[in-house]
Amino acid sequence: MKNDILNGIKNIVFDFGCVLVDLDRHKCIEALNAIGAHKISCYVDECKQADMFLDLELGKISVEEFCDEIRRRAPGCEASNEEIRYAWGELLQQIPVRRMRAVERLHKTHKVYMLSNSNSVHWDKAVEHFFPLSGHGPEYYFDKTFISYNMGMVKPDPRIFETLLQETGAVAEETLFVDDSLANCKAAEAFGIRTLHVTHGDEWLDILSPDDENSVGRESVTNHCHGAGSVATIGFFDGVHRGHRYLIDQVKEVAERHGLQSVVVTFDKHPREVLHSDYMPQMLSTLDQKVARIRATGVDRCEVLPFNEETASLSAFDFMRMVLKDRLGVEYLVIGYDNRFGHNRSEGFDDYVAFGKQIGIEVIRAKALVLNEVNVSSSVIRTFLSGGEVDLAAKCLGYRYALRGKVVGGVKEGRRMGFPTANIDPSSVRTMIPAPGVYVMTANVGDGKERPAMMNIGCRPTFDGETTTLEVHIIGYEGDLYGSEISVSFVKRLRSERKFASEQELMRQLQSDRQQVLDLLG
Fold it and tell me: pLDDT grade, residue 279 (50/70/90)?
């Protein structure tokens, strides 16, 4: 009856723990014991949380409050918040690539959702460490994710299934729910949702994956061969700027002309991170942002390969033969105007053409995108940002450069002067921070609205500050943002940061800055 269960099914809803991700209670307990939290080990459960663990799963308490409660319940525990996060995160062990490959195949013919009782510690770990190993972020595999800590409710609460059906528009009888809990399955069935109860993560693979695909799906991402011929390009694609998109358009044109798939091949890490241990990358985008922007170009596939010492040791010839030809089925390789790859960086386009003739790949030189006599590149954009020229960076990117980070408490000097600020923790920002100065911004606090804002990047010289701060004044907004993540987009640099003779002089300047923001953004 393999696959019969999918008859009439248009929507598939996956649980997370024990269905997609492997859990290990004993490793988590060992990690908690190692930081002196022996007394709370009894709370650890792979299937159902209680007490402060449940509060975290419901979003009732922050991670910081959770860590404080751990230390209160276990007096011998003096671990930092980061150490506690790590120990609790050890409950999650891995998301096998074979499962995400199977989800990817199902997504081609069905709407796919995730409905999980999970907390921000576990979800952040999965997003940052597990999903990238499969090549994509969760937004690639799922049309929408429903996570308990964002919803304020956990399965088997009937409201969670009611919310799922309402927000997706799914018909219950056309929906299959895959979960390892009988109680959760029964709650779903009360709404008419069809269910598949499993006892471990690979069980659903044998039921929902055809035999001829299941064997492929159980290979690692670097061994996954797609079979069908393709036209590919390769690069790091940081920021996915206009030059990148111009290159990808050329790939799509060649693919359409030959009736093949278009493929973008990129890497999870910047090569210099692996080759030079002291290299601190100034990224224009996170891996998830990069993959999302590549997918938005309409390319057929985005292949994210792990870049490690083994990858770095491959010659261009071996990479073209073993990875591009044998694994990814590349027939045409479109090379960017300045792109070099392989262990020997002295090799260039002519060498790639020669290697391609031996391997069976036709190598094509791409045209560069030139704006105002400048070849658009990630390094050019970084130069603009380091000089505060965010408007020029936006012209090259094709969109406004943005930062995302966590709001933390500040000294409230701005509030005292009538300019309350959301202070973004610089350590939470995973992309490049532009030059110090005052900027015209738009801010998104998570509700989808873009609000006018102004931002100061600098050390607050008027108050003799010494460390860099990111202070955002969102005009007309009075909500409490502490502990949440916000996204801010750069429109224009107003002025450099400078020291004022008094608070009154600074206040007059801030009033002028705010008026300029409103004049520019309306």
Answer: low
